[in-house]
Amino acid sequence: MSDRALADAPTELPPSEWGRRSAAPPATPWIFAAIVVLLVAGRFVLTPLLAFPSLQTWATIFVAISVQALPFLVFGVLLSAAITAFVPASFWTRALPRHPYAAVPVAGAAGAVLPGCECASVPVASGLMSRGVTPAAALAFLLASPAINPVVVVATAVAFPGQPMMAVARFAASLIVAVLVGWLWLRFGRSTWLRVPTRTAAAGSKWEAFREAAQHDLLHAGGFLVVGGMTAATLNVVVPRSWLTTVADVPLLSIVVLALLAVLLSICSEADAFVAASLTAFSPTARLAFLVVGPMVDLKLIALQIGTFGRAFAARFVPLTFILAVLVSMAVGGVLL
Amino acid sequence: MNRMSQSLVMVFLGGAVLRITVFSTTYLNYVKPGFRPFLIAAGAVVLALGVIGLIQEWRKPYLTGPDHHPDGGHSEHGGHDEHGKHGGHDHSHGPRVAWLLCLPVFAIFLIAPPALGAFAARSEEPPPRPPISAETYSALAGDTVTAMPIGEFIGRAWADSTYSLTGKRVRLTGFVVPSAKKNRWYVTRIQMNCCAADGIPLKVAVLKAARPPVDTWVEVTGTWVRPKSDRIPNGMVAPELVATDVTEIPQPVEPYE
Hints:
Largest interface: A-B, 101 and 93 residues
Shape of chain B: elongated
Shape of chain A: globular
Distance between the termini of chain A: 51 Å
Number of helices of chain A: 16
Largest sheet of chain A: none
Strand content of chain B: 15-25%
Radius of gyration of chain B: 26 Å
Number of domains of chain A: 2
Structural class of chain B: alpha/beta
Radius of gyration of chain A: 22 Å
Oligomer: heterodimer
Strand order of the largest sheet of chain B: 2-3-4-6-5
Distance between the termini of chain B: 42 Å
Strand content of chain A: under 5%
Number of strands of chain B: 6
Helix content of chain B: 25-40%
């Protein structure tokens, strides 16, 4: 694969070649035709050879994470592309408070209206930044929206029958973390850490700009989603869950362990409440930490953030979010649960 | 990654998603049934974006003559310009990462991952205790066999104060998982809430029946064994069932509970 990419590189570089048919090397269709033959023939030849239970279990979980995240990713990418192509930049300066410190909580609370999971929020936040929204406000939106939207709140309430405070605590803790991270980023963050996607509106029609943005974001974010999905599937198969129950009785450690589990499992925020509900050996506060950390920090999300905003950003943003999410969960859990 | 490759990868990805949703029920191995319309919509969008890209790629030499070249070239290749800039910050994350989108396609077609089975449920640990549901369980028929989900059986065995299972014959459907203990095996079903990554194996120990081959789907008819002591906390051991009849069946269309 890297050979292919290297072979492509020279043909992409000279601008004089662009717009002509030669921009696509004639080999490309043939390589893809070979792949199609491989897929069709491999179905009969290779599939029986690949029937190890461990590999199949890994592949099932990997495909499940990828397939399950795809609709949300497509939704987020289309919304982001629509923001870029159709919403004028002036809209956001009018919609959000002028003062950045006031814009952060407003953007965080606005996350309540975007139904979706964390895969959708990364491209949308990136689209918001490229349209001139203060990065800290877009980040607050990024963190809040997967955890506080109506679908997730209802799912949490359903998963914890008779414990309505769990949904309330999740909503409160997630919003508090999002706003705190936004403010901290505003106060201490440097613009050089964050690779704000500079997407100037293309010269062509708006629909062409929309398609360009959607295709680019989908391929880019989708590639990183696959990285996250592979990592999560590997850990899911390799790490036995029985390791967890041994620490369930240790008060502080159990909270940290469930928070780490949320990072490793990378479960969609619309489903994680059901998993949290099944972890009955743990205290409510530890399960709250699982629910607050999961939508904000997990492996597929980290991969998406590295891909979208750069490594320097993720190296600072991810630990900050994780620590604040654990601390706020402990505080909110202590008060409400 | 050139534009034709980008479009072709999207065609493959969209095609693979439509292949497992529209033309088969394979998607039920990975996600809940209710997810189908969303998957079809997403697959169609990805496929359409790829096809439109391909059509434009083929028509380009005829659309953009030499006069229009600078404008056309710029707008068409906005994505690449952007990546040129990104390259200044970070060389490792070009659009090459999009090649990885081929991996789910390969996995779907070549490995053809089946529903989670005995390997995923291999741990000897009992399933996590299901949350106590607010619903009260109805009484079971006295003389006929009642078919019920394994989740309901475990719920009745663990959380039902009226012991409605006592002496009643029930039928459970699941696949066979071996046990390290002697004279028993587990009839198992994976409970899934959203996708296979959050699957939780629900196991019921089957006593007094020969074990069919691992991963065979079976219908087990039998009677619950009430634990000798109520002092064992729920969730420490799987509920037990004395089998009177074990029938092998084909895998259900919906493999999860």
